[in-house]
Design brief:
Elements lengths: L21 H5 L6 H5 L3 H10 L3 H10 L10 H13 L10 E4 L8 E4 L1 H10 L3 E8 L3 E2 L2 E2 L1 E8 L6 E6 H4 L4 H5 L1 H18 L7 H18 L3 H4 L6 H9 L2
Antiparallel strand pairs: 1-2, 3-6, 4-5, 6-7
């Protein structure tokens, strides 16, 4: 019996094996967002706390707390649910906590409504009471300022914050129709932020201002350096006036 040596074996006799490229090995198949969301610890905890079915829970948050976004990512969802867990808020109604888009195209803002802020304050174990005071001076029929004071059981001195109408008044429909209430809300939110250290969330008015500021800053950063400090052409008449002729 004749044995064929390895060196005499035709090249095509070796089985052809496919070696996946580095890209194929490192980039797994992307699964649908709702399937990836199930793996989030915050998703599981919020789902359990809601007492809803998984399908009902997903439908509720997408139609309420996420409805203001044209698109969202898993990281956006995780930020929303994590904030809900931290502050014991309900993300399924859209009335306490929700996401709003950023005008500059950045990550959406986690917004807590006035109902949400009230819930955070009232359920805090050290909350001992709240008091509001309005200025006697009026500006267009609205108090010039509103003062909020929050008492805590574990502190000897209460926290007091005063918000001035001239500094915080906005242009939204709510400010036009209910300016006194909006000013009181601003005082409540800022006082709660100081009294309880709530620096990771915004109210709707703050989110709008931050978003607008980022948009303006982004637009300015895209201007050519020489154009930022350059004045507009003054024209013939402007030149004559400057030269005194």
């Amino acid at each position: 019996m004749t044995h064929t040596k390895d060196k005499d074996r035709p090249p095509h006799s070796e089985p052809i094996r496919h070696h996946p490229s580095t890209h194929e090995e490192q980039v797994p198949h992307q699964r649908p967002a709702h399937l990836r969301a199930r793996e989030l610890l915050s998703f599981k905890e919020c789902l359990s706390r809601s007492g809803m079915s998984e399908e009902g829970f997903i439908g509720a948050i997408t139609s309420t707390s996420l409805s203001r976004l044209s698109s969202w990512s898993i990281s956006d969802l995780e930020r929303l649910l994590s904030a809900s867990l931290r502050h014991d808020l309900d993300p399924t109604t859209g009335r306490e906590v929700f996401l709003v888009p950023d005008e500059s195209g950045g990550a959406p803002h986690v917004v807590v409504s006035v109902d949400g802020w009230s819930r955070i304050i009232n359920q805090h174990q050290q909350f001992a009471g709240i008091r509001f005071k309005e200025a006697s001076q009026q500006e267009g029929g609205v108090p010039a300022w509103v003062e909020c004071t929050i008492h805590r059981w574990d502190r000897r001195v209460p926290t007091t914050v005063r918000e001035y109408l001239s500094e915080v008044q906005g242009l939204s429909q709510a400010w036009l129709t209910h300016p006194r209430r909006m000013l009181r809300h601003k005082a409540l939110v800022q006082c709660a932020r100081v009294a309880f250290g709530l620096g990771d969330i915004y109210d709707a008015d703050e989110a709008s201002r931050v978003s607008s500021a980022r948009s303006v800053s982004k637009s300015a950063s895209h201007m050519k350096p020489e154009a930022r400090g350059r004045k507009a052409p003054m024209g013939v008449e402007g030149l004559r006036s400057t030269l005194g002729v």
